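Continuing from the previous page...

OK, I double-checked the sequence for Polysaccharide lyase-like protein against my notes and this is the correct one:
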Amino acid sequence: MPEPLHPRAFSRRTALRSLAVTAIAAPAMLSPLHQAVAAAPLWHPDPATDGLKAFEGIEADRGNHHPDRKYVIVEGDHYRFNIWADDRDTTGGGDRQRTESKGMVQNGTTLKMHNGETWKIAYEMFMPSTLHGTSRFTHIFQTKTPSTNGGPWVTLDLTRSGSKEMLRARAYANSGSPDIAATDLAPLRDKWITIEWTFTPGSKGTAACVIRNGTGSSAPIVAQGKMSNVNIPDQGDYVRPKWGIYRSVESAKSDIINTYLLFRNYSAARG
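Thanks. Re-ran it with the corrected sequence; updated structure tokens here:
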């Protein structure tokens, strides 16, 4: 499997220090999400110390077909999610594959998003050129309700129509799965970009997404949007985010190839 391009690494402590300095020097440049996350992050895992304990669990090779493969690992300041073309999930009758983490855990406590609460989640993501948009579903972020397996409610998708590939934040459970924000995929590959979400769960909830081409509060926004009446209910349980690669293998074989996805600088705040 090809290795990612590694921009100069920096520690989470350095990143948070830089964010704090920026907030003091130029608060007007920070989005509301960055202000909230910088002020009171409830979830801010450090891969080096928290490892996979930052999540409720990992879902990959659940049929144990490839016990020798490493699906989700820590690499320095980030998490790497690997997937192979011949992977198959135990759901869907063999028509899909999955390498995902689920949930947010801080110091042993699971954070849960409930109806009526407003949550702000941010992270940086690196998509290589081998990670393609597809004609069938490819979710690289999704929200679900654990007890009912309800959802996906809101997703971040890689899609393809002919030669056109898109990165799309979608109200997936709404009629027609409309876009909340969308942009061309090609300019966002092989670099670190920033994704910022705001959720208020409920059967008529709200969801907003900002996509930045780069990192930091000054990185240019390439897509943003907000939508009301979004179907994202906790169904008496809670809404849980998931990260990784979850995709149908019924797309073109040229798009279902060995690849990976990187994440770092996760943060979540409530209110």
